[in-house]
Specification:
Largest sheet: 13 strands, mixed
Shape: globular
Structural class: alpha+beta
Strand content: 15-25%
Length: 811
C-alpha cells in the first residue's frame, strides 16, 4: 500500500509539475521565514536559563522620579556591594560586577622570568568581581585553585579563549602565575575557566578580584566610597535565600540606602528595586553597556510575520489544490468505483500534502541562509547558522512540517475525497461544485491573503515615510558635512590649540570647533539646575552642551537675543535655548536675559538665548538646553570639499591626530550618520516589512493565480459559447476579471482601516511625525490592483484567445 502511495504521489507531482513547483516554493518561503524567526526568538528567550537557582537571582536597579519625570538605572552606588550581604537579611550571595573604566590596554608578560611583553589595545569584557560570580554561572575550572582565586588584591581569572589569546600554545597549568598589566595595574593569573557555551548576558572574559579596586587608584574612579552617586560601571546582583521574599529584601535595601546617603539628590525620589534575572534581557528601562537588551515587542512582531507568511503559504496551497479538482475528480471517481474508501482517499491526499510540505521544508533549510539577509538587523551577536543543529530546531522542523501538512491538506483532502463517483463520471461534479459554498470559502481565503498583503504595503509605505521625515527634518542646526572625533581625556590645552590651528589651515576644511558632543546625541547629558522666580524654585530637566566660540557658527545655531558665553574653564555664564526660558516661566525669550540660575551651588547669569534644536530623537519633545563656553575633548570639523574628496581630508586629519597621539586609534563619525543611528530600530523594521511585503505579495499572487485557473477551467464551455455568439476578447477578459477585482477591492477596504490604526499607534512613539496621507492608501490600493491585474492577465487572456471548438467538441 505504501508503495502504491508513493507511486501515485510522485506521478501526480510530475504530472502537475507547474502546480507542484508553485506549492513547494510558496510553502518553502513561509517555512524558511518561520525557521529563521524561530531561530532568533528561541535564541533570545534562551538567555540566562542555565544559572543555578536562577529564580532566586535578582539585579538591584534604581528607579527615580522628579516632577513626573521617571528615570531608571541599571547601575547602583558602588559601596552598596560591600555591605549589602551583611546588612540585609535574606541575601545568600552578593555578586558585584564593576566594568573596567575607559579604554583598557593589556600588557601580557609572556615569560615569568623575562620582561617580554605583548600589548593588546582596547580590551573588552574585563570586570572586577568575586568568586560567587563564577559559582553563579557554573564555570568549569581548567587550572587554578578556586578557593584561593579572586580573594586577594591583584588576582585575575581568565576564560579559556582569552587565555589562548594572551598565551598561545601554552598549557593552562603553565599560565597560572603569569602576569598581566592593565594600563598601570599589574595582576597575577590565578585560574583558567572554560568559556560559557550557553546564551548569556554575562559576557566577561577576564575576572579581576574585587579587593583590587580598593588597593589601586581605581577606587576613586569607580566612586567606591560614594553613596550619593553612581556610575554605569557598577552593577550588583544578589541571590536570595530560599525563605526570603523580594518585597522584604527590597524594603530593607531602601532602608539601608537612605541610611547612608547624605546629600539631596537631583531626583525627589530614588528607590532600589529587584529585577528578576529572567526579565533582565528584556527590560529596556535598565540599559547597560555590558548587557544587551532584547525587545519583546519586536520578537512578537517577528512571530506575527512568520505566522502570516506560513498562513499565506497554507492558503496558497489550498487554493491551488482545489483549483486542480477538475483534474483529480475522475481519478477519485474511479478509485471509489473499484472499492476505494473515503478514509483511504483522505490518507492519500494528506500524504501528498505531507510529501510536498516535506520537500518545502528541505528547501526552506537550504534557502534560510539567503533569507537571513532580510533579518540581518534582528540577528543578535552570537547567533550563527550552527544553531540549526540544535535539537530544538529539529523538533521545530518536525512540528511545523506536520502542522502545515494538516492545516494545508485537511480541507482539500475532504473536498476531493467527497466526490460522488456517479456524478464525477457523468462530468456533473464541477457544475455543482462551481456553485457550492466551497467557492465562497476559496474566495474568502484569497481575500484574506490580499488583506495581509495590503496591510503590509500600507504599513511599509507609512513607516518609510516617517523615517524619511525624521532623517530629513530640520533639526535646528547644520548636520551635513560635519565630522567629529574625540581626543583622549588627558588632552591639554596646548594640544587642543595646536590641533585646531592645523586643522583649520587644511585644504577642504571650512571651520573647526572644539567642545563637547554635537548638538544631538543618543542618550543625554543632564544637569541639576535651579531657578528661583521669587515665589518658588523651578528645576527644569536640562540638557548640557559646551564648546568654544566657533561652535555656534559651525552648527549654524542662531542667537535670538544676547551674546555668546565667554570662554572659561569654569562656568561663569550661560546661553540657554527658547524652551529653557519657557520652562522657567517667561513668555518672551529675551526676558530671561540677565536672570540667574543656580548651578553647582553657584549663581550663573543667562547672557544669551539661542534657537531651539533637537538634542535627541524626534520621539521626544525639544528639551531645555544650557550651553557653556569652554573647551572639551571633541573636535567638530565642517568640510567644504565634495563627498568624493572626504576620504583624502579624513586621511589628513588622521595624520595630524597620530602625530599628537601616536598610540591611540583615530575614530571619527559624521553627525548625520550619528542621527541616522537614532532610528536604527525603525529602519530595521522598515527593511523587514519590505521583505515581508514582497513575500506576501508573491504568495498572494500565486493564490490568485490558483483561483483564476480554477474559474477559467470551470467556465471554459461558457467562454466558448459566448465567443460563438459573438463576444469579443475584451468582453471575455472583463467577464473573467471583474469578480477578482472585487476581491482585491474588498481586501483593501478591510486592510486600510487596520493599517491606519496600527501605524497611528506606532506613530504615537514620536513627538514629531509625518501625516498619515490619503495618497498613501490610494497608491497602495492602486499598486496592489495593478499587480493583481497582471496576474489575472496571465490566464484570462489565454482563455479569451482559446479556440471555442476545443471546449465545445465533447458536447
Amino acid at each position: 500500500m505504501l508503495k502504491n502511495f508513493f507511486i501515485v504521489t510522485l506521478r501526480n507531482l510530475w504530472r502537475y509539475k507547474f502546480f507542484s513547483l508553485i506549492n513547494i516554493v510558496g510553502l518553502a518561503i513561509g517555512l524558511s521565514a518561520s525557521l529563521v524567526i524561530f531561530m532568533i526568538v528561541s535564541y533570545e528567550f534562551s538567555f540566562d536559563q542555565f544559572e543555578s537557582d536562577k529564580d532566586r537571582v535578582y539585579r538591584i536597579v534604581l528607579d527615580m522620579n522628579r516632577d513626573g519625570f521617571e528615570g531608571h538605572s541599571a547601575a547602583v552606588p558602588a559601596p552598596l556591594s560591600k555591605v549589602v550581604k551583611d546588612a540585609v537579611l535574606g541575601i545568600e550571595q552578593a555578586i558585584p560586577i564593576f566594568s573596567f573604566p575607559g579604554d583598557t590596554k593589556a600588557d601580557v608578560h609572556i615569560n615569568r622570568s623575562e620582561d617580554k611583553l605583548v600589548t593588546f589595545k582596547k580590551q573588552e569584557a574585563i570586570v572586577f568581581t568575586n568568586l560567587d560570580y563564577l559559582h553563579l554561572l557554573n564555570y568549569r575550572w581548567i587550572a587554578g585553585d578556586p578557593p584561593t582565586a579572586l580573594i586577594q588584591p591583584f588576582q585575575v581569572v581568565l576564560t579559556q579563549s582569552r587565555a589562548s589569546e594572551y598565551f598561545p600554545n601554552t598549557p593552562a597549568a603553565d599560565i597560572i602565575g603569569n602576569r598581566v598589566t592593565y594600563n598601570d595595574m599589574e595582576v597575577t593569573v590565578m585560574g583558567v575557566v572554560r568559556d560559557l557555551n550557553q546564551a548569556s548576558d554575562f559576557r566577561a572574559k577576564e575576572f579581576i578580584s574585587l579587593p583590587t579596586i580598593e588597593a589601586s587608584s581605581l577606587k576613586g574612579d569607580l566612586m567606591f566610597d560614594v553613596w550619593d552617586d553612581w556610575m554605569s560601571y557598577s552593577a550588583l546582583f544578589i541571590k536570595l535565600s530560599p525563605q526570603a521574599t523580594p518585597q522584604q529584601v527590597s524594603k530593607e535595601l531602601n532602608l539601608l540606602y537612605n541610611k547612608h546617603k547624605k546629600k539631596e539628590s537631583y531626583f525627589s525620589k530614588i528607590n532600589l528595586s529587584l529585577l528578576p534575572l529572567a526579565d533582565m534581557h528584556f527590560d529596556n528601562r535598565y540599559q547597560s553597556a555590558d548587557f544587551r537588551i532584547a525587545h519583546k515587542a519586536t520578537l512578537y512582531g517577528l512571530i506575527a510575520i512568520a505566522s502570516f507568511l506560513l498562513l499565506l503559504g497554507c492558503i496558497n496551497y489550498i487554493n491551488l489544490t482545489t483549483a486542480q479538482a477538475s483534474k483529480r475528480a475522475k481519478e477519485v471517481g474511479i478509485r471509489k468505483s473499484v472499492g476505494g474508501a473515503k478514509n483511504q482517499l483522505i490518507f492519500q491526499f494528506l500524504g501528498e500534502t505531507f510529501f510536498i510540505t516535506l520537500l518545502a521544508t528541505l528547501l526552506s533549510v537550504l534557502i534560510s541562509p539567503l533569507l537571513l539577509h532580510a533579518f540581518t538587523a534582528f540577528i543578535p551577536e552570537g547567533l550563527t547558522l550552527s544553531f540549526l543543529g540544535n535539537p530544538e530546531m529539529i523538533i521545530y522542523l518536525i512540528f511545523v512540517t506536520v502542522s502545515v501538512s494538516i492545516s494545508a491538506g485537511l480541507y482539500p483532502a475532504f473536498i476531493l475525497s467527497g466526490y460522488k463517483p456517479v456524478q464525477v463520471l457523468k462530468n456533473q461534479q464541477l457544475i455543482s461544485f462551481g456553485q457550492s459554498r466551497q467557492t465562497l470559502i476559496r474566495k474568502g481565503l484569497t481575500v484574506s491573503q490580499f488583506i495581509i498583503a495590503q496591510f503590509f504595503i500600507i504599513s511599509t509605505v507609512l513607516i518609510s515615510k516617517q523615517i524619511y521625515f525624521v532623517l530629513h527634518a530640520d533639526m535646528g542646526f547644520q548636520k551635513e558635512a560635519v565630522l567629529t572625533f574625540n581626543t583622549p581625556r588627558d588632552t591639554v590645552d596646548i594640544h587642543r590649540t595646536q590641533i585646531k590651528q592645523r586643522l583649520a589651515a587644511m585644504s577642504g576644511v571650512a571651520m573647526v570647533s572644539n567642545g563637547f558632543t554635537s548638538p544631538a546625541m543618543e542618550g543625554g547629558a543632564f544637569s541639576n539646575i535651579t531657578y528661583q522666580n521669587g515665589s518658588e524654585e523651578i528645576k527644569p530637566n536640562v540638557q548640557v552642551r559646551w564648546g568654544d566660540e566657533d561652535y555656534f557658527r559651525l552648527y549654524q545655531i542662531r542667537l535670538i537675543a544676547g551674546r555668546q558665553a565667554i570662554q572659561s574653564d569654569s562656568i561663569t555664564e550661560i546661553v540657554v535655548n527658547e524652551r529653557f526660558t519657557k520652562e522657567i516661566g517667561f513668555q518672551r525669550p529675551e526676558e530671561a536675559l540677565g536672570k540667574f540660575i543656580i548651578y553647582n551651588d553657584k549663581q550663573v547669569p543667562i547672557v544669551g538665548i539661542m534657537n531651539d534644536f533637537h538634542t535627541q530623537t524626534m520621539r521626544a519633545e525639544i528639551a531645555p538646553v544650557m550651553f557653556q563656553g569652554r573647551p572639551g575633548n571633541t573636535f567638530h570639523i565642517k568640510l567644504q570639499s565634495e563627498p568624493s574628496d572626504w576620504s583624502k581630508v579624513t586621511a589628513s586629519i588622521e595624520k595630524i591626530y597620530k602625530e599628537v597621539y601616536p598610540e591611540d586609534d583615530f575614530n571619527y563619525e559624521f553627525v548625520d550618520d550619528t542621527i541616522k543611528k537614532f532610528y536604527e530600530k525603525e529602519q530595521a523594521t522598515a527593511a523587514l516589512l519590505r521583505w515581508a511585503t514582497g513575500l506576501a505579495i508573491f504568495i498572494s499572487c500565486l493564490g490568485l493565480l490558483g483561483l483564476v485557473i480554477y474559474t477559467t477551467n470551470s467556465r471554459t464551455k461558457e467562454v466558448g459559447i459566448r465567443k460563438v455568439l459573438g463576444a469579443t476578447v475584451m468582453q471575455i477578459i472583463t467577464l473573467l476579471s471583474k469578480d477578482f477585482i472585487q476581491l482585491v477591492l474588498i481586501a483593501f477596504a478591510v486592510a486600510a482601516p487596520i493599517a491606519w490604526w496600527t501605524t497611528h499607534k506606532w506613530l504615537e512613539n514620536f513627538a514629531y511625525k509625518t501625516d498619515i496621507s490619503w495618497w498613501v492608501f490610494l497608491a497602495s490600493g492602486v499598486g496592489m490592483l495593478i499587480i493583481a491585474l497582471c496576474v489575472l492577465g496571465i490566464q484570462t487572456i489565454k482563455t479569451a484567445l482559446a479556440n471555442p471548438t476545443e471546449s465545445l467538441r465533447d458536447e
